[in-house]
Write a structure and sequence with these properties.
812 residues, alpha/beta, Rossmann fold, 6 domains, globular
Length: 812
């Protein structure tokens, strides 16, 4: 055996010995240390500990084996004896992280059904104590049904209008109960209540956590009735008598009083102290200023609570599913050219077929819905890497054709190289992500590119046609004229505003993480007032958390979170002419008219006759009201001429009031159809005056170019059409000779015939309608041959190309 091998074993032997000692398997026990003769020595055994006097040194211990894991000699506190094998195994098992029990999961939030059952259980005694309502005793119960004969009267519109409560001045203030006592319960209000208006009753229910809807359904728990209640709602509630209860205003007050707050002074129910009422009216008490030293303390909630996975995205599930299917099958369909069968919802068959054909997706919708975040999360979930996000409104220039300016040039060059080069996508994915599908391009704010940009939308369209990787385009308004080329090459996916309940559930999760106690009804109201914009809502909640720890419905009522949203002119017309308009002041109505000062007065003028005025009792009164509205619109037209003709912009508010607000206030009521044609839709019509005025202006401009007096036009029209009706093609020469005599050309003939159409004259007949199409075509060819066409030049013969000339020369 060589010296190297011996040295190796010598070095390895102590190591193996140490391992055996640590495991408790060393066959040779450690020798006992020699006792100190000057001090007593304690000998530790498995059973007892004794103290003995000093003795002279003893002989070495015998070589008899001791039990494993037991040390007979003295041991110091710093070096305890090794534990037995079983104890060591138990200690290792206890210290192993795999054997630790998992922490208990967070409890799931209660479902709407559980919340509903909990609220009904807490109000069971109060519900059982409510008396049954008798509609025959309307004075006592405050409940009566609307007369059936009243529904037959077309001018009876009490269902849309609201009368003044009869006991509003004599009845006291409503009680105030616990904040969430109605949480999970649904209410419907109908009829004229005893002392509250409907909006006040709705605020009272929402203040206590309830939900108010417009119609009775399976989720309705209480129908609050009054005088002249709707028969359809009462009938639906009686059909659901096991789940829906009919109560009046006093019954609603009794439910609230059963959970009424107690005064902190005497412990009795009643009105709250003035100091407490002031605190509740202005919100909760200010939150103590706490110093948060976490890394996310200075972040905005919009960034801090940005969705990290698809489960945190709110709404638009169907659109997300279509985009996910398109990303999953993009490479197989557009790169590998495989015949992939796309499965999905049968309602989206056409959209799925379109996804197979096109290489890009156009996501459109209002701002704040999470379109860009959703696209990035879907791409990440499908394994696309890297995700290249580009702001299309910043990347404006057209890419250069020079290859030297490729990846080292501007962003448009880099994108073009990335989508057209087959080697770059795999290189961009990198070697670290072996399962990556390759890169993806997300182009945000595509509608921000203006028509003056060099390239613009055309450059994006060209990139989409030649791409080998998926492209997701995002915009706010896809109906802009400049977006039409992009819509032709993309699959359109419309993102809509989520339901306010979905937004409230997501905001509730954020509030729980941030320590803000927010009522669900308050969050639903904020979601509705923010117009579905999650970014605005998160900013408001973060600002509120700086000074308050709780958020109630009363805090939200006076908030200034209303988002300035663009309302369509048709929606403005519906609001002004419908019952909803009475809830707006004149200033608010004028602001809505200013959304489109030119179109909205025309829409009111087109549709005001279709509304049955609420203040009219019969047809005679209706005609007088329509005359009043027409007078107001005439004053509005006069003001419009002064504003645009003389530049008197100071009277523009007067124009808006007299042209739209004044007539709408008179004719406000239910909309009805006039039966002008079969299946006439009951909806706001577009202004017909715009089309007629445009055509009339065109005809008048063309007639001025003809130069004939207006008295001659009927006779000239007859000389141009009658020969064609009587003789057919044989009368073409007569028409051409007549036009040469008066110096008319083809455009003059068309203007003369258009000026006398039934479109402008009710009793006129179109003579050219009876002329056969073949005769009209022959007349057009004859006029062109006779050069009776304005700005007409003889076409030049096509020059022969040099290539063809050389080819003929070679043949010769």
């Amino acid at each position: 055996m060589s010296s190297d091998i011996r040295n190796f074993f010598k070095a390895a032997a102590p190591k193996k010995k140490r391992e055996r000692e640590e495991e408790g398997d060393d066959p040779k026990p450690k020798p006992k240390p020699k006792p100190n003769p000057s001090s007593p020595v304690k000998t530790t055994t498995t059973t007892t500990t004794t103290t003995r006097t000093p003795t002279p040194p003893v002989s070495p211990p015998s070589k008899k084996k001791k039990p494993l894991g037991i040390d007979i000699g003295a041991s110091s506190p710093s070096c305890p004896p090794p534990p037995p094998r079983a104890a060591a195994a138990a200690a290792a098992a206890a210290a192993s992280p795999k054997k630790k029990k998992k922490a208990s999961a967070t409890p799931k939030p209660p479902t709407p059904k559980e919340l509903r059952q909990k609220a009904l259980k807490s109000l069971k005694k109060a519900i059982d104590a409510l008396p049954l309502l008798d509609e025959s005793k309307a004075e006592e119960s405050g409940f009566s049904l609307r007369e059936k004969t009243a529904d037959l009267n077309p001018y009876n519109q009490q269902g849309g209008a609201e009368v003044e409560p009869r006991n509003r001045a004599t009845k006291g203030k409503p009680p105030r109960g616990e904040a969430d006592m109605f949480h999970g319960l649904g209410f419907v209000i109908t009829g004229a209540l005893d002392s509250l208006h409907r909006n006040e009753c709705e605020d009272l229910i929402k203040r206590h956590g309830g939900r108010v809807t417009a119609s009775v359904s399976g989720k309705t728990d209480f129908l609050v009735v009054g005088l002249d209640s709707g028969s359809s709602k009462v009938k639906a509630a009686r059909e659901k008598k096991e789940t829906c209860r009919i109560i009046n205003e006093d019954g609603l007050f009794a439910l609230i009083a059963s959970k009424e707050k107690k005064s902190s002074q005497d412990g009795t129910t009643g009105a709250l102290p003035k100091q407490q009422e002031a605190e509740e009216a202005s919100g909760s008490k200010p939150a103590p200023m706490a110093v948060d030293l976490s890394p996310e303390a200075g972040l905005l909630w919009v960034t801090k609570h940005k969705p990290k996975h698809l489960g945190e995205v709110v709404g638009n599930q169907s659109q997300r599913g279509l985009m996910q299917s398109w990303l999953r099958n993009f490479k197989d369909i557009h790169v590998l050219k495989k015949d992939v069968v796309v499965r999905g919802d049968p309602r989206h068959v056409k959209k799925q077929e379109e996804l197979r054909e096109k290489k890009a997706v156009l996501v459109s919708g209002p701002p704040g819905l999470g379109k860009t975040t959703c696209a990035a999360l879907l791409a990440k979930a499908q394994g696309y890497f890297p995700i290249i996000e580009v702001n299309a409104s910043d990347t404006r220039g057209k890419s250069d054709g020079d290859a030297k300016k490729g990846l080292n040039g501007k962003t448009s060059n880099q994108i073009r190289e990335l989508i057209s080069n087959s080697a770059l996508p795999s290189a961009a994915a990198g070697s670290s992500s072996k399962e990556s599908r390759g890169p993806i391009v997300i182009m945000d704010e595509c509608d921000g590119m203006s028509g003056s940009d060099r390239g613009g939308i055309g450059e994006v369209v060209d990139c989409i046609k030649n791409t080998k990787i998926p492209i997701i385009c995002i915009c706010n308004d896809k109906y802009l004229p400049k977006m039409k080329p992009l819509r032709n090459v993309c699959v359109e996916l419309d993102f809509r505003k989520p339901d306010k309940r979905m937004i409230a559930r997501r905001m509730q999760q954020v509030c729980e993480k941030e320590g803000l106690q927010a009522a669900p009804v308050a969050l639903e109201t904020l979601a509705e007032r923010s117009n579905g914009d999650l970014r605005i809502l998160l900013g408001y909640l973060q600002q509120w958390k700086l000074t308050r720890d709780t958020l109630t419905y009363d805090d939200v009522r006076g908030s200034s979170i209303d988002k300035d949203s663009d309302i369509s002119p048709f929606k403005v017309c519906d609001v002004l002419l419908g019952f909803e308009g009475k809830n707006y002041s004149i200033s608010d109505q004028l602001n809505m008219v200013f959304q489109d000062m030119d179109l909205i007065p025309l829409l009111v003028q087109e549709n005001y006759v279709n509304h049955r005025p609420q203040v009219a009792g019969n047809d005679k009164q209706r005609m007088k009201i329509l005359a009043k509205a027409a007078d107001g619109m005439s004053y509005g037209d006069w003001a419009s001429q002064v504003v645009r003709g003389q530049g008197e912009w100071g009277i523009m508010p007067y124009q808006g009031v007299m042209g739209a607000v004044y007539p709408a206030t008179y004719v406000r009521g239910q909309r009805e159809v006039m039966n002008l044609y079969p299946n006439e839709p009951n909806m706001t019509r577009f202004s017909a005056w715009l089309g007629k005025n445009s055509s009339q202006s065109k005809v008048q401009r063309e007639l001025r170019e003809v130069g004939l007096p207006s008295d001659y036009l009927p006779l000239v029209q007859r000389r141009l059409s009658q020969p064609l009706l009587d003789k057919g093609k044989e009368g073409i020469d007569e028409v051409v000779d007549f036009m040469k005599t008066y110096g008319l050309v083809k455009e003059d003939k068309d203007a003369i015939l258009d000026s006398l159409r039934p479109k402008f004259f009710k009793n006129a007949e179109d003579p050219m309608k009876k002329v056969p199409t073949a005769v009209k075509s022959a007349l057009t060819r004859s006029l062109t041959k006779a050069e009776l066409v304005r700005d007409w030049t003889v076409p030049k013969p096509k020059a022969k190309s040099k290539a063809k000339a050389k080819g003929k020369a070679k043949k010769k």
